[in-house]
Amino acid sequence: MQLEGRALSWRYGNGPWLFQNYSITIQPGEVVGLIGPSGCGKTTLGRLLAGYSKPLTGEVKVPGRARNHTGYDPVQLIFQHPERAVNPRWRMAKTLTEGWSPDTELLESLGIKEEWLQRYPNELSGGELQRCCIARALGPNTQFLIADEMTTMLDAVTQAQIWHTVLHHASVRQIGLLVISHDHALVSRICTRTLTFG
Amino acid sequence: MNRTSTLYHDRRHRRWNERSRTFISAILALILLASIGIGSWLLGSSGLSVQLENRNLAPSFLHLFGTDWLGRDMLSRTVKGLWLSIRVGLLGAACSVIIAAAMGLMAATLGQTADRIISWLIDVFLSVPHLVMLILIAFVCGGGLKGIAIGIMLTHWPSLARIIRAEALQLMSTDYVLVARKLGSSRFTIAMRHLAPHLLPQLLVGLLVLFPHAVLHEAAITFLGLGMSPHQPAIGIILSESMRYLSTGMWWLAVFPGLGLLLTVRAFDKLGNHLRQLVDPRHTHL
Amino acid sequence: MPLLEVQQLSIAFQQYTKGSRQQMVTVMEELDLAINEGEIVAVVGASGSGKSLLAHAIMGILPANAYISGSIRYNGEQLDEAKLKSLRGSEIALVPQSVSYLNPLIRVGKQLQTNKDSIEQHSERKGLFERFRLGEHVARLFPFQLSGGMARKVLVSTAALSRTRLIIADEPTPGMHPDDVAEALKQFKQLAAEGCAVLLITHDIEAAIRIADKVAVCYAGSIIEIAPASDFSGAGNELRHPYSQALWRALPQNGFIPISGTQPSMGLGLQGCLFADRCNRAVDACKVSRQESRQIRSGIVRCMHAT
């Protein structure tokens, strides 16, 4: 039941290889940190694992992912910029319930307030939006969560709050976490295992 | 916050905000449309008959817009012509927009094969001149309203479909649509819930651009004898005919029908602009 | 006299409530801030606390449905639209958040020039590229061809002309590699040493305290504390406001301790201290009236408990 990327490679066009034959496994309930300089392909690796693009070589094995990538994906990705990950014309209630209907308990634990649900994304701050994106991605079928610079744009208090909640849910539900970040302090604080990339 | 003074955003508090202005212009456009429609129904066809004793009369109380060289009442002709043109134009433009939206969305969501086929179709249709195509279709369908409407809807969609396709493809690669795929939304759901609302402004603009285009083509085809019968007063025919008589000083032949067309187009243009402002997220709160 | 002085700045947005009815939503209230020449002031705080709005208000680039009141003085003179127009891009420079603020279709070198440039500035820009070790060829690149670190240097170089007296940097560091952050910060420090006033807007407290002289902490649309950067150290006991302390203690390297609750939404017309419902020292008085700013230990704070 592990998330496995085997011998993955990626480059843009005919450019230099960002990574070649890179293999990675994440066990359920594990918190893996992926750290490296900007532009080294961390984000691309996250996207390959989450099924957003196909690796040029190798394969990504995910238990429960449909072959044609339809249906709710057991690997969910959280983006650095939440404002781009929500439809600007949708009220938050619609956005939150796109994949599943989060219960009030989860919303409360993430600090999502009732009154946000009737607002549009441009009326919420980045931190508030990111909480909503996380709630949206924590559906019952989520087995792995890839957090790509999830809290980079947020202030320290919100960052700590969000990570405490996410880590709690991940450990209760045995969700495997991949934390992509450039922040050594954060990664060494929350991760059980750290990979240096690039 | 009543103590707010504007510091360097010099905007006086406006009496009407964008939403009420949109509402008002929609009402005005509707009133115009309704009055032309009802007017053409009330006026009956008596004004269209040839009355040689009433030739070339300047505007008077009996004939508000004057009469033409065959003694036909210009008010009746103008109103009926506008109504006919609006119907043909709106029908043709609306159908083109629907086809364009469907094609654009399908090209963007149904995968590469569908995209290739649709792009090829667009290129084929664009490579044949509109008028040739229109003549062919109008000829096959037989003249009259039906032939023109079908002709217009089949020839005007490709240019808009191309824009819609490009826009939809761009939307397909936005983060939130990618997320929607991973949350299990089907292609159809994405096309309907994510793409279509975003494309609405483009479709509206498309409708407004196509509308006068359709009216013009309708006039052209009629002029060539393949469209409406010359007895039916289409605004395009009236205008082109009156050009010949302008030099003789009969200004009313062109002025009133021209003004009518201008007013109609302007009303819809204004409405379209207001709507576009409202659907633009940057202006939602003005 | 400070170079830039913001007094009692309030910003409100006009928004639709229902149908065509509109109301004013206050997003920033009575903000005071001053910057002297050669000084770096960092504004830190939660996202949505209004720190970017402050930059936009100073640059006059708020959206059209914003109404502002209060005064912004530059060099002792009221900064109005006409004045701003002549200063923007010459004496006052904005370092934007990312290269996405550049036109993707125009070569970098061409874009950096403004129509206010004379021959003198022209040659100065060339010198700047050398100083930032960018190389002549960079000027001929398009924005998308720049790497992250290069882009940052290019953006900073837009501000680094000698005629510039005030630099407003909006979130210049997030997502950057530590080496690049250090490089960018060094550039600001150097500009300040040459007499520039720098307003650094960031949520990265670490970066802020490394170069700033003073740090202003923003919360829910008001500045709740302005402290010397050296006060951000140890367990944060030198800090005056409970929110500043919470912010400091929530850093991964300082305990990673969150406090509960979220920043109140703006425009609710809340009474009393905006932090009261998250504060463990809040008393009844906190919930009734808002604290005025007061001076404590060479800092300014809006809290009645501060000592």
Structural account:
The complex is a heterotrimer of chains A (198), B (286) and C (307). Chain A has 6 helices and 8 strands. Chain A is of the alpha/beta class. The longest helix of chain A has 18 residues, at 156-173. Chain A starts with a strand and ends with a strand. The model of chain A has no long low-confidence stretch (mean pLDDT 91). With 286 residues, chain B is mainly alpha-helical. The longest helix of chain B has 37 residues, at 187-223. Chain B has helices spanning 18-43, 74-109, 112-127, 130-141, 144-172, 175-182, 187-223, 235-246, 252-279. Chain B is globular. Chain B has one domain (2-45, 65-283): MetI-like fold. Chain B starts with 17 loop residues before the first helix and ends in a 7-residue tail after the last helix. In chain C, strand 7, helix 6 (178-193) and strand 8 form a beta-alpha-beta unit. The two termini of chain C are 28 Å apart. An 8-stranded mixed β-sheet of chain C has the order 6-7-8-3-9-10-12-11, sandwiched between helices. Chain C has a single domain (4-299), classed as 3-Layer(aba) Sandwich (Rossmann fold). The mean pLDDT of chain C is 83. Chain C is of the alpha/beta class and 307 residues long. Chain C has helices at residues 51-59, 81-87, 108-112, 119-131, 148-159, 178-193, 205-211, 242-249, 284-288; strands at 4-16, 22-35, 40-45, 66-74, 77-78, 92-95, 166-170, 197-201, 214-219, 222-228, 294-296, 299-301. Chain C contains 9 helices and 12 strands. In chain C, helix 5 (148-159) runs parallel beside helix 6. The chains are: A alpha/beta (198), B mainly alpha (286), C alpha/beta (307). Chains in contact: A-B, A-C, B-C. The interface between A and C is medium-sized, with 35 and 35 residues.
Summarize the structure.
The complex is a heterotrimer of chains A (198), B (286) and C (307). Chain A has helices spanning 42-49, 92-96, 104-109, 126-137, 156-173, 184-190; strands at residues 3-10, 19-26, 31-35, 57-61, 75-78, 144-148, 176-181, 193-196.
Which helices and strands occur, and which strands form pairs?
The complex is a heterotrimer of chains A (198), B (286) and C (307).
Chain A: E1 3-10, E2 19-26, E3 31-35, H1 42-49, E4 57-61, E5 75-78, H2 92-96, H3 104-109, H4 126-137, E6 144-148, H5 156-173, E7 176-181, H6 184-190, E8 193-196
Parallel strand pairs in A: 3-7, 3-8, 5-6, 6-7
Antiparallel strand pairs in A: 1-2, 1-4
Chain B: H1 18-43, H2 74-109, H3 112-127, H4 130-141, H5 144-172, H6 175-182, H7 187-223, H8 235-246, H9 252-279
Helix pairs in contact in B: 1-2, 1-9, 2-3, 2-5, 2-7, 2-9, 3-5, 4-5, 5-7, 7-9, 8-9
Chain C: E1 4-16, E2 22-35, E3 40-45, H1 51-59, E4 66-74, E5 77-78, H2 81-87, E6 92-95, H3 108-112, H4 119-131, H5 148-159, E7 166-170, H6 178-193, E8 197-201, H7 205-211, E9 214-219, E10 222-228, H8 242-249, H9 284-288, E11 294-296, E12 299-301
Parallel strand pairs in C: 3-8, 3-9, 6-7, 7-8
Antiparallel strand pairs in C: 1-2, 1-4, 4-5, 9-10, 10-12, 11-12
Helix pairs in contact in C: 5-6
